[in-house]
Amino acid sequence: MNIGYDMYRTLGISGEVYAYGEAVAEMLQSRFTEIDATAEYNQLKVLKGMQDQQVSEACLLGTTGYGYNDLGRDTLERVYASVFHTQDALVRPQITCGTHALALALMSNLRPGDELLSPVGKPYDTLEEVIGIRPSRGSLAEYGVSYAQVDLLPDGGFDYDNIRRAIGERTRLVTIQRSKGYQTRPTLSVARIGELIAFIKGIKPDVICMVDNCYGEFVETVEPSDVGADMVVGSLIKNPGGGLAPIGGYIAGRRDCVENAAYRLTSPGLGKEVGASLGTLKDFYQGFFLAPTVTAGALKGAIFAANIYEGLGYKVVPDGRQSRHDIIQAVTFGSPEGVIAFCQGIQAAAPVDSHVTPEPWDMPGYDAQVIMAAGAFVSGSSIELSADGPIKPPYAVYFQGGLTWQHAKFGILRSLQSLVDKGLVKTEDVAKAREKLKKSLS
Ligand SMILES: *Cc1c(COP(=O)(O)O)cnc(C)c1O
What we know:
The strands form two sheets. The protein has a seven-stranded mixed sheet with strand order 1-7-6-5-4-2-3, sandwiched between helices. The protein has a five-stranded antiparallel sheet with strand order 8-9-12-11-10, covered by helices on one side. The protein contains 13 helices and twelve strands. The protein is globular. Helix 2 (about 15-25) runs parallel beside helix 13 (about 425-440) and helix 3 packs across helix 4 (about 70-85). By secondary structure, the chain is of the alpha/beta class. The site of pyridoxal-5'-phosphate has 12 residues, from helix 5.
């Protein structure tokens, strides 16, 4: 059923932008059916985890103080372990964000004299300071943990020769980032991560393989922990929090690795036994339950965005047809005005703070001004509709999230409307893109 144009008109979308959006959405139906099938599988996987671990009403209540015998917390960690097929998991509101979860996994499993290796190029920006690539107080480098990196080959493949050379006696832990983050390399599929881990373990079986799983959870029916990863690590204000978790991070993996992380998060001797869940558990459970379908909605939004802007002649990564392994979409506008108009359109589509206008600002830690659009229920949540872009060449924006496909779709149309309203995209070009699409389909 087509709901028609009326509601879109009341929300400021022009007839031509709407019609183009309908044509693109129609073209994508078969891909959306595949995404729904993945969500269906993952929905059952999460449900099975919850049933197998006998989640009860009492699990939804929290503890205070030390948090000894926190039934809900301990059961939730078993649910995560069950869904990721790992021996154990640490899922806590005391883990403040994704970077914290990754830092925790690294710092608790590395010792002075060890070496950390990234065989997939430069890690996510915030990890540079954790590792000490950019000198920073309290970094791994300060504690005598060295770092080695092997970049991907120009075609995106693994540089197996140099990876083999980089693995030495001191190599203790290998970090593999699934998502491309803010780089232009392709995101790694779980299958490719599995090949890389098999290669590394073939050279040094006792090396710990950790995967930064941020933005990747539930995009496929398998997770890196299904293909040999000793730890998978991520943020609860991305995919696995399902938009409901108000804070948190997780580490799922081998028992000894998770135990090390727990001793570091709380204290040697205390480990997982302490750490009150406060009032977070219901949202953690319910968010995890919704995560497969929320991720599916965000994924559809990313593919829709790719095709909308590709059809108008912009460079998009991944492109409109590529298979997806995370929920991030990059669109290159080539001008500051394009980046700003896009982000202002995303902001105008938000359920919260839609009336404010984002502007570029000097964000700490970045070498150029950055503009961010986020009108989220959970501050900074990037599983909700959000976008950001540095104001520097090539003037690309990174778009992600949307708690529902319907909202992600509207957000993208609103962003295009913003470009049209500012004269950066002509209405006649939108009409031409739609005609071209119609022709290619017939
Ligand atoms: C978001 C992200 C992080 C860091 O998570 P924060 O919650 O922002 O600290 C790390 N790695 C990747 C790939 C990410 O996408």
